[in-house]
């Protein structure tokens, strides 16, 4: 029997696994009201199992913002929005941060707990839980951060700085 004070001296299935990460790509969405993915990734088919938790973290910088124009970020998982910042009133150099923990509860259902926030003075925090049904863990699962500006203007620029997706 293992000593509960010190844990077991063996590796088990609770060790995390990095699925995807990138940083420093300098990919931007600017001067457009057409929604666009700043990053996208496909979790391979049959990778997820019941009981898994997928953790997603995304950091973006508002390089430039035209006055009262707003930015709408959507974190999508398996084709559904699991976090949205609604229309965020952002300013130059603001950080937009999104994270989510997606819990695989069955072969076709998942629950996502997520947040999108900015670091601006009087910052916006949007926290929510989303039940995902009719999803299939035997198929590839897309993950993406989609962004959209309220107006097309040369001064509206948002850049993705880093993203990580991992099993925890």
Structure description:
By secondary structure, the protein is mainly beta. The protein has one domain (17-167): Jelly Rolls, CATH 2.60.120. Helix content is 0%, strand content 55%. It contains no helices and twelve strands. The protein has strands at residues 17-23, 28-30, 36-43, 53-64, 70-77, 80-84, 88-89, 95-104, 110-118, 125-132, 141-149, 157-167. The strands form two sheets. Strands 1, 2, 4, 8, 9, 10 and 12 form a seven-stranded antiparallel sheet that branches. Strands 3, 5, 6, 7 and 11 form a five-stranded antiparallel sheet that branches. β9 and β10 form a beta hairpin. The model has no long low-confidence stretch (mean pLDDT 88).
Write the CATH fold name.
Jelly Rolls
Chain-averaged pLDDT: 88
The portion of residues assigned to helices is under 10%
Please trace the helix and strand order, writing H or E for each element: EEEEEEEEEEEE
**Structural class, judged by helices and strands?**
mainly beta
Q: What gross morphology would you assign? A: elongated
Q: How is the biggest beta sheet arranged?
A: 7 strands, antiparallel
Strand content: over 45%
Count of individual helical segments: 0
For the termini, the CA-CA separation is 26 Å
Q: Supply the CATH class.
A: Mainly Beta
Give unreliable regions as ranges. Answer: none
What is the domain total for the residues? 1
The assembly state of the depicted protein chains is: single chain
State the CATH architecture.
Sandwich
Number of DSSP E strands: 12
Q: From the alpha-carbon coordinates, what is the Rg to the nearest angstrom?
A: 18 Å
């Amino acid at each position: 029997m293992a000593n509960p004070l010190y844990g077991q001296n063996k590796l088990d299935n609770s060790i995390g696994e990095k699925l995807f990460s990138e940083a420093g790509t300098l990919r931007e969405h600017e001067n457009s009201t057409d929604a666009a993915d700043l990053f996208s990734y496909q979790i391979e088919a049959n990778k997820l199992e019941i009981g898994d938790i997928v953790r997603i973290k995304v950091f973006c910088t508002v390089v430039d913002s035209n006055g009262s124009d707003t930015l709408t970020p959507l974190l999508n998982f398996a084709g559904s929005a699991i976090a949205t910042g609604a229309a965020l009133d952002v300013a130059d150099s603001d950080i937009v941060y999104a994270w989510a923990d997606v819990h695989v509860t069955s072969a076709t259902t998942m629950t996502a707990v997520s947040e999108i926030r900015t670091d601006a003075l009087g910052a916006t925090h949007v926290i929510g839980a989303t039940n995902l049904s009719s999803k299939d863990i035997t198929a590839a699962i897309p993950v993406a951060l989609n962004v959209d500006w309220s107006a097309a203007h040369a001064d509206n620029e948002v850049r993705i700085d880093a993203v990580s997706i991992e099993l925890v």
